[in-house]
Design goal:
Elements lengths: L4 H13 L31 E2 L7 H8 L3 H12 L17 H16 L6 E10 L9 E10 L4 E11 L17 H18 L6 E8 L2 H4 L1 H12 L3 E8 L17 E6 L10 H10 L6 H15 L1 H4 L2 E5 L11 H6 L4 E6 L12 E3 L2 E3 L8 H19 L6 E6 L20 E6 L6 E10 L7 E6 L3 E4 L6 E9 L11 E3 L2
Parallel strand pairs: 4-5, 4-6, 6-9, 7-8, 12-18
Antiparallel strand pairs: 1-15, 2-3, 3-5, 7-9, 10-11, 12-13, 13-16, 14-15, 14-17
Helix pairs in contact: 2-12, 3-5, 3-12, 4-5, 5-12, 9-12
Length: 497
């Protein structure tokens, strides 16, 4: 049998010379509206218009261009050079261990804050973790947190995270080298680049940039941060968690992997803080794919598509809380009741993850710097920046979004009004007092579709009845700002009115 590897290698220059958006596996369409690439012809509807992805404004384009691959490389290299960042490693050595890494991240964040004119504050969010199955002795867990206060809605917050701790094969081995270049110095690089670029700006809502610790031991740092925010009654409308975002070129190699970042979105079932009643109701109405996390994922996917020529990346939205039987820091936010998603590279290479650095039988193992593609991580940072900045400058998500159990149902008596005997759908929501909102949009899609396919502009109203059957499509309501920035959509729950 002839090996396919030489043929593949010979084709790589050809593949790289063509637009990556036309390669097999790319999700963009050149001749159709975003969200409509694979829409079936049924159900046919003339309600609204095909959804077009939200476009970045001039300010956002300029911010995206500031993400610097050289800075990304410096952050990843510096963190890897601390030798180990195991949660139980030395916290007082100035050159080796998690304490040295924490102090370096803190000093960098404080430098960013100096450019913010007092709008960014940096702190350690810390506590002492008692002994557990993964903690051999009481240990200080410290998150480095930079908070950029919102100018008009400061209690609404968006949080980007990456964990700065690392590990070896033995989760309790805290003395051997564990460079953790991809897992997760790359995620911390994303967090720090966003903090640097946003520090000089004034978002409408608060943006929080957090390098968290204790992830490998049991999500300890992120859980403490999420609970801190919850206890302070902060309205966290989204967590962007970046974990293992360092390369798209792992085997099996596909050219489009270099331009694809996976985005994992959880259902309401796990690990969200959902009641049994809500889970049952969601199952009955077929809303399992419309959790806040998945609608946040749809929002990020749409923003990325609109900014594709600037971020040079696509988002692959995956209906799972995380990779198969695995987890990450976003789950701490989900269990606190906040929408949260996880970014992870297209294909992981397990030779370079959770490995003791070594060469064995001619194969190099270890999470080493040479296996990180800094341009790839830069593109991931641009996706994070475009979507998180867009959310922080859009109105807040609508609340109390409902769908009528009366309109569009069979009669319950002979006196049922004729106008109620239709297949129409009636939705309501609370407009609130959001000064950023100038109107609302209805979005919908066939129930089997991944992304919203249509939208209908509604204006500044709090209800709408549309000639669409609720059996066949999924609905969402989102707020619209004066500059066209839109919130993630909210899935309606049934009400008897």
């Amino acid at each position: 049998m002839i090996s396919p590897i030489p043929l593949l290698v010979s084709l790589l220059p050809l593949a790289s010379s063509q637009a990556w958006t036309t390669l097999p596996g790319a999700t963009f369409c050149t001749n159709e509206a975003f969200g409509s690439c694979t829409t079936a012809s049924w159900p046919v509807s003339n309600v609204g218009k095909p959804l077009q992805a939200q476009q970045p404004d001039a300010d956002l384009k300029a911010m995206i261009a500031q993400v610097d691959p050289k800075r990304v490389q410096n952050i990843v290299t510096t963190l890897a050079n601390f030798g180990t960042r195991h949660t139980l490693s030395n916290q007082t050595d100035p050159k080796r261990g998690i304490g040295a890494a924490r102090n370096w991240i803190m000093s960098q964040m404080e430098g960013f804050a100096k450019t913010s004119k007092g709008n960014m504050a940096v702190e350690l969010n810390s506590y002492i973790q008692p002994i557990s199955s993964t903690i051999l002795f009481p240990t200080n867990i410290s998150n480095v947190v930079a908070t950029l206060k919102g100018s008009s809605d400061p209690n609404r917050a968006y949080v980007v995270t990456g964990h700065y701790d690392s590990r070896r094969i033995d989760i309790l081995d805290y003395t051997g080298d564990a460079p953790g270049a991809d897992d997760d110095a790359t995620g911390v690089a994303v967090v720090m680049e966003l903090a640097r670029i946003c520090a000089t700006k004034r978002p409408a809502a608060t943006m929080i940039f957090a390098a968290v610790a204790g992830e490998e031991q049991n999500l300890y740092g992120s859980n403490h941060l999420a609970q801190t925010l919850k206890n302070a009654s902060v309205n966290v409308e989204g967590n962007w968690n970046n974990d293992i975002v360092g390369t798209g070129s792992s085997q099996p190699f596909e050219p489009v992997n270099d331009y694809t970042i996976r985005l994992f979105g959880a259902s309401l079932v796990y690990p969200n803080a959902s009641s049994a009643a809500l889970i049952q109701e969601t199952g009955i109405i077929g809303g399992e794919n419309d959790s806040p996390a998945r609608n946040l994922g749809r929002f990020i996917s749409e923003i990325t598509a609109g900014a594709a020529k600037y971020v040079n990346m696509q988002v692959a939205l995956i209906y799972r809380p995380d990779r198969y039987l695995r987890g990450g820091d976003h789950e701490s936010f989900l269990t606190a009741g906040f929408p949260a998603v996880r970014f992870t590279e297209a294909v992981e290479d397990f030779k370079h993850q959770h490995q003791d650095p070594r060469t064995q039988n001619g194969t190099v193992y270890g999470d080493l710097i040479e296996f990180v593609d800094f341009e790839y991580t830069t593109r991931v940072a641009r996706v994070n920046l475009a979507s998180m900045w867009s959310a922080a400058n859009a109105p807040a998500m609508p609340v109390n979004v409902t769908i009528s159990e009366v309109t569009g149902f069979p009669a319950d008596s002979e006196s049922t009004p004729l106008e109620e005997l239709s297949n129409d759908t009636k939705l309501r929501w609370a407009t609130g007092n959001d000064p950023l909102a100038v109107g609302y949009e209805l979005v919908y899609r066939p129930s089997g579709m991944l992304q919203w396919t249509h939208y209908l502009s509604l204006g500044m109203v709090d209800e709408i009845t549309v000639p669409l059957g609720k059996d066949n499509v999924q609905f969402g309501i989102r707020a619209v700002g004066k500059d066209g920035m839109k919130s993630p959509a909210v899935f309606p729950l049934p009400t008897d009115s």
